[in-house]
């Protein structure tokens, strides 16, 4: 009860705070006009171990087949504690030297996970990394516009309260986050404004932490309380995350929102299954990744395992009266 009161107080405080900034927007139009193809991977950087290299190989195969435009990372890019600095050899050992297939030598748009915040978080955000590998485009929160689809990349680690109050033996690098409350308030306001301005047919939000999950971490209450209302109020089609090391598809019972987890980039097999209030459509406890193909009228995603087998696919279409003009 005390926690609920604290959360309500926090929401009221958030609503009273103001932000004037805008999220950075990157435009990346598809090679094939009106047809975007990407891969989504999360929770991967382990110097090739725990089948990271096998998953990487299959990403190359599927990436070539689909002639993908880019890759999205749902975070936890480097285990266990992010990068130690811009010269950390893990950048090569867990990224550049692992994802070597030509088809995935495309931009990678990455958000940060909780493990990334346990290192030098500013290193991953430093554009100097692009001099080492030009693919690596990591920011806290930003937008990738691909015409008919907008990806809203959201920095979720600061939301989880116990990283601040009960970090245990972990150290979180909160530099440049003035206070949790102000940071989240500004971010939610910027996101809300950006979603309202978006003319894309498909609005997809990407963050590291789960909203709905049947696996180890389960739901993230702070995101359900603070971020989910913004997504539902703005007709977001899907929330895509990592954090739990699995592949899963859960659909909302009271909105059109879908929760999609792609966090199988390396270590997996937690052997946990928790019940969920929303509808669980698919769950795979092992390693893998997903592809996403989007046109003006249809969005389709496929989950693959570490051998490249397609485990599950799901598609949805927009009725003509739902289509928004896109630029
Ligand atoms: Fe995580």
Write the layout of secondary structure elements.
Blueprint: H1 2-16, E1 24-27, E2 36-41, H2 52-66, E3 70-73, H3 90-96, E4 108-110, H4 121-125, H5 129-132, E5 136-138, E6 142-145, E7 149-154, H6 161-165, H7 180-197, E8 202-207, H8 221-233, E9 238-241, E10 247-251, E11 258-262, E12 279-284, E13 288-294, E14 298-305, E15 310-317
Parallel strand pairs: 1-6, 2-3, 3-4, 4-5, 7-8, 8-9, 9-11
Antiparallel strand pairs: 2-13, 6-7, 10-11, 10-12, 13-14, 14-15
Fe (ii) ion binds next to loops.
Catalytic activity: a phosphate monoester + H2O = an alcohol + phosphate
Binding site for Fe cation 2: 76, 114, 208, 243
Keywords: Glycoprotein, Hydrolase, Iron, Metal-binding, Secreted, Signal, Zinc
The ordered string of helix (H) and strand (E) elements is HEEHEHEHHEEEHHEHEEEEEEE
The ligands bound in this entry are:
fe (ii) ion
Helix content: 25-40%
> How many helical stretches?
8
The CATH topology label of one domain is: Purple Acid Phosphatase, chain A, domain 2
Low-confidence parts lasting 5 or more residues at pLDDT below 50? 1-18
């Amino acid at each position: 009860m005390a926690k609920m009161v604290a959360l309500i107080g926090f929401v009221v405080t958030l609503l009273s705070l103001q932000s004037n900034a805008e999220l950075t927007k990157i435009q990346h139009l598809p090679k094939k006009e009106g047809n975007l193809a990407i891969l989504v991977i999360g929770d991967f950087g382990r110097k090739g171990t725990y089948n990271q290299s096998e998953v990487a190989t299959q990403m190359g195969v599927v990436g070539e087949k689909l002639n993908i435009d880019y890759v999205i990372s749902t975070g936890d890019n480097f285990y266990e504690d992010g990068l130690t600095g811009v010269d950390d050899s893990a950048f090569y050992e867990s990224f550049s030297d692992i994802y070597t297939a030509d088809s995935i030598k495309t931009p990678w748009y990455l958000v940060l996970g909780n493990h990334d915040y346990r290192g030098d978080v500013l290193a991953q955000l430093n554009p100097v990394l692009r001099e080492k590998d030009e693919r690596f485009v990591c920011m806290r929160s930003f937008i990738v516009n691909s015409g008919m689809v907008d990806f809203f990349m959201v920095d979720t680690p600061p939301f989880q309260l116990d990283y601040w109050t009960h970090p245990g033996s972990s150290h979180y690098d909160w530099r440049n986050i003035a206070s949790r409350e102000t940071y989240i308030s500004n971010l939610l306001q910027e996101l809300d404004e950006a979603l309202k301005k978006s003319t894309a047919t498909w609005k997809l939000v990407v963050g590291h932490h789960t909203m709905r999950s049947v696996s180890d971490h389960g739901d993230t209450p702070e995101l359900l309380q603070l971020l989910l209302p913004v997504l539902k109020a703005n007709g977001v089609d899907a929330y895509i995350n990592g954090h739990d090391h699995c592949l899963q598809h859960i659909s909302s019972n009271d909105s059109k929102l879908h929760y999609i987890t792609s966090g199988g980039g390396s270590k997996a097999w937690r052997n946990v299954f928790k019940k969920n209030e929303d509808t669980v459509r698919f769950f795979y406890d092992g390693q893998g990744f997903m592809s996403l193909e989007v046109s003006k009228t249809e969005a389709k995603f496929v989950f693959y395992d570490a051998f490249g087998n397609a485990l599950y696919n799901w598609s949805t279409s927009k009725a003509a009266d739902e289509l928004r003009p896109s630029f």
